[in-house]
Amino acid sequence: MTRQLLKAEIHCHIEGAAPPAVTEAQARKYGVDTAAFLRDGAYQWRDFSEFLIAYDAVAALFRTEEDYALLTEAYLAELASINTIYSEIIVSPDHGDRIGLGADAYLAGICDGIYSAKEKTGIEARIIVTGERHFGPDRVVSAAEYAARAKNPLVTGFNMAGEERMGLVADYARAFDIARDAGLGLTIHAGEVCGPFSVTDALDLVKPARIGHGVRAIEDEALVARLAELGTVLEVCPGSNIALGVFADFDSHPLKKLKDAGVRVCINSDDPPFFGTSLAREYEIASQTMGMSNTEINDMTRTALEAAFVDEGTKATLL
Ligand code: ADE
Ligand code: ZN
């Protein structure tokens, strides 16, 4: 029974974890019409571009420190209830800035949620600050500078999410240099919407310990071998990939092939209610639909923990 296995994830976007009912309540509170992106209790989008628009619209409905504290605590409490011991939450200070809350209050709310959840359930969590690629290279650099100077013990990594088709990794490399110099762990969305070249660029120009998705590396055998050789961890999000049409169905999803080829992979939920999923379901899919054994599933949880951007003392308590 996968339900009893310990779980961990290192790739979930905070606003992407907002249940539709919570977003509806936020919209009522702020008098916002959600028809363009949320109807009949479900988020509305037809492709990756529309998904990003819906995501940004949902983010704009969380406007206070408390909004973020409650959202974060609820997400972590749900994870804890299915035996999850660790999560890394992807947060974008730009979303706090854009709504007038400000990055500091945005981050403070998320930290409050993490501390409350830890106190009530024991779940451990850390924060990955992300730049949003579609906000442009300058904003991504600003996000990296913000993460670098935050000196917040919960902020342990830097990422870039958003529209992978915008610009080249080279345009954003400086942001990663800033984050690396500040001692943050590096991960980057690549090989999700774009093909293997995007993963190759990330490896060449960012040298990240981990890659968000990276699944389209499967189209290039030599690249798969390179990922295995480097030990780069792929934060794989199967339900997200199927919902966004990256692969036609779970049978053609490459999670197991990548693992069998020696690539370090783990299971993640990405933006669960946007994709009709949950971390519990992602584990269930790996087990029931993809036929992976409990040993393979436990391997992936261990990989997530080994790759976690967390201090060695805490990591030792998790492994
Ligand atoms: N932001 C939230 N979810 C994302 C995804 N799957 N890809 C890129 N950016 C995102
Ligand atoms: Zn993501």
What this model shows, in words?
There is one protein chain. By secondary structure, the chain is α/β, with parallel strands linked by helices. The chain has a single domain, classed as Metal-dependent hydrolases (TIM Barrel, Alpha-Beta Barrel), CATH 3.20.20. It is built from 14 helices and ten strands. The chain is globular and about 50 Å long. It starts with 6 loop residues before the first strand and ends with a helix. 52% of the residues are buried. The model has no long low-confidence stretch (mean pLDDT 97). The structure holds adenine and zinc ion (ZN).
Structural class: alpha/beta
Extended strand count: 10
What gyration radius follows from the Cα positions, in whole Å? 18 Å
Bound molecules: adenine, zinc ion
> Largest beta sheet, briefly?
8 strands, parallel
Enumerate how many helices there are, as a single number.
14
Widest β-sheet, arrangement of strands: 1-4-5-6-7-8-9-10
CATH topology term: TIM Barrel
What is the strand content? 15-25%
Spans of at least 5 consecutive residues with low confidence? none
Roughly how much helix do the residues carry, as a percent range? 40-55%
Please tell me the CATH architecture by its name: Alpha-Beta Barrel
Overall structural domain count: 1
N/C terminus separation: 21 Å
Give the overall shape.
globular
CATH class: Alpha Beta
| CATH 4th-level superfamily | Metal-dependent hydrolases
Q: What is the mean pLDDT?
A: 97
**Series of H and E elements:** EHEEHHEHHEHEHEHEHEHHEHHH
